[in-house]
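the two lines:
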Amino acid sequence: MSLTIAGHTFSSRLFTGTGKYANQEQMIASILASGSEMTTLSLRRMDLKAGSDNILKPLQQLGVKLLPNTSGARDAKEAIYAAQLAREALETNWVKVEIHPDQRYLMPDPIETLKAVEELVRQGFVVMPYIHADPVLCKRLEEVGAQCVMPLGAPIGSNQGLASKPFLDIIIEQSNVPVIVDAGIGAPSHAAAALEAGADAVLVNTAMAVASQPEMMGKAFKLAVEAGRMAYESGTGKVQPTAEASSPFTEFLKELV
Amino acid sequence: MQLYVNDEPVQSEHNTLSALLENYVGAEQRVAVAVNQQVVPRSMWSDCLLKDNDRIDIFESIAGG
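prediction for all of em together
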């Protein structure tokens, strides 16, 4: 059941984010209930007057692996700079590369992402790129050394689910690195569907953070991801257009007439 | 010496990065620092000499997805 990325083994296939929670207590309770072993963080320039909100300490106490992202980067150069800063601030060479110049749909820029990943791999980073569900791009990223690919299900925070499902299926079929469905997952059923289809993991943030009970939703996602993976490993039946009886046909009913 | 810390103009007598940062960063605080957009690892702060008009940027982790 476990998943290995760059030599690191995770027993949970649910990765989480720390954004949008109403408060730190809810964030910690939700991540804990979800069983997630890796959670994302962002970087920003410190507000010298307001001081720090100190998000690190409770997460370190929780013992989850921290995955910095390059959110806010608009091109490869900014993403590389953000990754270098994150490596220093969080003492990790893991980075989730996300480059989205457009604020309305937050679509990841494929060209800048490929450039950034190639350079960051050269600099020794474990790179996890957030991308559109583009099978060709996934192969190109794999070739330059991405340790996994993170195709979107739907726009970030949109809760639309697996809008990109046909393309996720192609990516899953072709990929030699783990496929982590990131963005758009709005309900546990979406996460279960991704795992059932053979995705190696999902990353969930908004759906957990904005739930009226984030802790319970974290648990719901944990169960959904486990169920989805178990279904995938069990092997789901073939979809077909006509019925196939689950009970054997007998002459029994005729006898009664 | 005129410096800029996160874009704010600062007059400073400190000539090393480590001395300047004492005003801003706690000993246990996990931050990343760049001088003129070059990341300076913490182990190098005391060797990093500042000059007039240097731009120092201090970054910290925040919540994000």
